[in-house]
Each structure stands twice: as structure tokens, then as C-alpha cells.
Design brief:
Blueprint lengths: L1 E6 L3 H16 L3 E3 L7 E6 L4 H17 L4 E6 H11 L6 E3 L7 H11 L3 E3 L22 E4 L1 E2 L10 H5 L3 E2 L2 H13 L4 E5 L15 H8 L7 E4 L9 H9 L6 E3 L7 H6 L6 H14 L4 E8 L6 H14 L3 E6 L17 H24 L5 E10 L2 E6 L4 E5 L8 E10 L2 E6 L1
Parallel strand pairs: 1-2, 1-3, 3-4, 4-5, 5-6, 7-10, 10-11, 12-13, 13-14, 17-19
Antiparallel strand pairs: 8-9, 15-16, 15-18, 16-17, 18-19
Length: 428
């Protein structure tokens, strides 16, 4: 039987979908593209914004229409918090939240046997880490490893704690063994991912994220460790020491900011102010001068005045991010921000998004220009028409002439120029 999987949302979802794909393959099923004919269709959903909800619903309806005779499985964050809405969509056979993804093969086989709809939505606030592991990825050069799930921050705008639950961590030995296996299978770069990655181990009390990083840095032939995202409040002295003493950790950190205005940060229930944030960034740059710092930003939060927004723009320039991922504030039922007065109109939100995107491009170009006429090490990910492409450790995309056998190699490339969004160079 043929299985198609469609994934929305974050890198955690991507990892989980890869695990599910591997589980079906090991059970004798054939994996096909979503556009191909399939007997079983799985949609791994996202609910971080209203747009995510809309995309999830649209893909579910597309799947039902396109794959009329297929078993339709809907799982993930949207399922966890909006299972009743999914039940109203005709044609969905199985609904799974965020606790039974590893059991999807057996649930599908149960459905095929009994032809009775299945709903598996557990209390997400009282659950353990769901064991998952991978030894290879179907389509990726770098390997993602989920080390943690859940979030306890409860930022006023965020629905994720309600869809992913409290923090819980994968056992350290399991993380180490999974990454050793991936390295043995040829992966040179591993991306550590989670819902609140830097809170890894906080539920264990005997070790933390820095302890884990130190252990992973000792793995033979692991060339790069990348952290998908980490909060500024988690960059304590212990972490800074690990960063300072281990070059395996790449020169790139994604550190969400969300706002550059102290008033807004407080209303968001973020755990820092702009001074704290900037001081930590300066500390990182004191030990990693050329590090790439990228961030997430929300504009149009309730009560965000034009002055507040301009303060944010000024702060973005002061920090000099190498890239800014910006999102218009999205109201989420069940969050504190949804009940706030002075909601910002959509036109103003999108105007502010455009302004930040313009600034982001300026800052990105400024950062990339630093590497012209330098030699950079690139992990090659693609080959097409005589051109290879990949990313530096700073996560700058690079193109060069090359051959197909260059894929998955770490190659030194001399950068001659920039053709945004790429640096262009030649293999040494």
C-alpha cells in the first residue's frame, strides 16, 4: 500500500514526519508524494497562527478531495487543540494529537481492519516524552534530531504550550546514540531541535542543555552541531563556556526577540528586556565575532503604537541581525493577548511586516558582504546543471561550479561576489 505525508509547520514536525515515514517503510509500505495516488494520506498539522490553521484545514480538504478512497489521517498541533473542528470535515478517518504519532502505523492498521473512525487526543499537560529515533533522512543532507518537546513559558500570544504541553526531554543516552548512528550513516551536520530546545533537561534536574552539548561535541566525525533556536535567557555562563570551547557548534544562533520595545516585551510575558538581550548578544560576539545571529519578530501586537514599532526598528539596527523572520501578530483563542484591548488592524500589521522585511534584507546583505574575498567551508546539499549549492556554518547560501559527487561534502569555496540571496564562488 502507498502512503503520502504532508507536513506543515516547524522542524519538530519535519523530524516527526521523517520518523513516521521510516515506520511505514519498515512495515512494508511504499512512500509516495502527496500529489501521487495514495492509499493512506497523513497530514501533520500546525496551529501557531490563524494562517497555519487555515493551511491545515485547506490541506485536509485537498487530501479528502484528491484521495477519495484513501485513509485520511490528521495529526499534530491543530489536531491537539481543534479536534472538534477536524471532525466536522467529512472524510477524515483518524485524528491523532501530539502524543501518539509513533503509533500511527498500528492505528492505521486497526482502522483498515475495523473501518471505524479513531480519535486519539490525550491530556497534553500530563504526558512523557514520546520516544522516537532516526538513522537516516529521506531527503535531507543535514539531520534533524528532536531532543525536547513542550514549553512552560506561556507567552501571552502563544498557543503552543496548549498544543505541545509541558517541557519533557529525550534521555541523553538516546540522543547520543541516535546522533552517533546518523554520523555513521554519513551525516556531517546535526540540527538539535525542540519546541523549547534550550530547556532540554529542565525536567530531569541532573543535567541540562549545556551538559548535552558538551557530550555531543565529543562524537567522532560529527563536523557541525546547529541549534535550531534558543532563548536569550538560556545563554548562561555555562552555555557561553561550551560555545567558547567547542568549534563543532556552528557560528550561527537563532535567538527569538519578538519585539524591540520593552513595553511590548512585558505585555508579551517575555522574560527579558532589550538591555538584557543586547548585553547577551554582545557577550556572544565577544567570543564569536563573525557569528550569524538570526531572530523571530512579531509586529502589530495589541497596544503596539507607531512609536513602539519605531523603537523596535531602532533596536533591530542596533543588534545588527543577519536575518529577521517577521510575522504579523495572530490572535489565538485561549491566550491572554486575544483578550487585550487595542488590537491592531491587519493593514497596519502588514505595513510593519514590509518595513521589517526591507530592513532584514539590508542587514542580511551587509552581513553577507563581509565574506566576499574570503574562503568559507560549505556543506554541499544540491547539484543542478553543473552548479553545486549549500550553506556555510553561518547558514549563508553559497553557489559554485561543481559535480554531483560533491553532495554531502564539506568543501572550501573562495567567495568572489554576491548575487543576493547567494554568495558566489569557486571550489579550492
Amino acid at each position: 500500500m502507498k502512503v503520502a505525508i504532508y507536513t506543515l509547520g516547524c522542524k519538530v514536525n519535519l523530524y516527526e514526519s521523517e520518523v513516521i515515514m521510516n515506520s511505514f517503510k519498515k512495515s512494508g509500505y511504499e512512500i509516495v508524494d502527496f500529489e501521487d495516488n495514495a492509499d493512506i494520506v497523513i497530514i501533520n498539522t500546525c496551529t501557531v497562527t490563524n494562517t497555519s490553521d487555515k493551511k491545515s484545514r485547506n490541506i485536509i480538504r485537498q487530501a479528502v478531495k484528491k484521495h477519495e478512497k484513501a485513509v485520511i489521517v490528521v495529526m499534530g498541533c491543530y489536531s491537539q487543540v481543534r479536534s472538534a473542528d477536524i471532525k466536522e470535515i467529512d472524510g477524515v478517518d483518524i485524528i491523532i494529537g501530539n502524543t501518539k504519532k509513533s503509533k500511527v502505523v498500528s492505528l492505521v492498521e486497526e482502522y483498515l481492519k475495523n473501518k471505524k473512525s479513531i480519535t486519539e487526543i490525550d491530556d497534553i499537560m500530563h504526558t512523557d516524552f514520546e520516544p522516537m529515533e532516526l538513522d537516516t533522512f529521506e531527503t535531507r543532507t543535514r539531520a534533524f534530531v528532536k531532543i525536547q518537546d513542550g514549553c512552560n513559558n506561556f507567552c501571552s500570544y502563544c498557543i503552543i504550550p496548549y498544543s505541545r504541553g509541558n517541557i519533557r526531554s529525550k534521555e541523553k543516552d538516546d540522543v547520543v546514540s541516535e546522533i552517533k548512528c546518523l554520523v555513521k550513516n554519513g551525516y556531517k551536520e546535526v540540527v538539535l531541535t525542540g519546541i523549547h530546545t534550550g530547556h532540554y533537561g529542565k525536567d530531569k534536574y541532573d543535567y541540562d542543555f549545556s551538559d548535552l552539548l558538551s557530550e555531543l561535541c565529543k562524537i567522532d566525525n560529527l563536523k557541525r552541531i546547529r541549534i535550531s533556536s534558543i532563548e536569550i535567557t538560556e545563554l548562561d555562563s555555562k552555555f557561553i563556556d561550551v560555545l567558547k570551547n567547542n568549534k563543532v557548534i556552528v557560528n550561527h544562533m537563532h535567538i527569538p526577540l519578538q519585539s524591540g520595545c520593552d513595553k511590548t516585551l512585558k505585555e508579551m510575558n517575555r522574560k527579558y528586556d532589550t538591555k538584557y538581550y543586547l548585553d547577551k548578544i554582545n557577550l556572544i560576539r565577544s567570543i564569536r565575532p563573525n557569528i550569524s545571529i538570526t531572530t523571530d519578530l512579531i509586529v502589530g501586537f495589541p497596544n503596539e503604537t507607531e512609536e513602539d514599532f519605531n523603537n523596535t526598528l531602532s533596536f533591530l539596527r542596533k543588534v545588527k541581525f543577519s536575518k529577521i523572520h517577521v510575522f504579523p501578530y495572530s490572535r489565538r483563542k485561549g491566550t491572554k493577548a486575544d483578550l487585550m484591548d487595542n488590537q491592531i488592524d491587519e493593514q497596519t500589521k502588514h505595513k510593519r511586516v514590509k518595513e521589517v522585511l526591507k530592513l532584514s534584507e539590508e542587514l542580511e546583505i551587509e552581513y553577507m558582504n563581509k565574506f566576499i574575498n574570503t574562503d568559507v567551508l560549505v556543506l554541499i546539499e544540491k547539484f543542478e546543471n553543473g552548479i553545486i549549492s549549500g550553506h556555510t556554518e553561518n547558514y549563508i547560501p553559497v553557489k559554485s561550479k561543481g559535480v554531483e559527487s560533491d553532495i554531502n561534502e564539506l568543501l572550501m569555496i573562495h567567495i568572489d561576489k554576491m548575487e543576493y540571496p547567494y554568495l558566489i564562488g569557486n571550489k579550492l
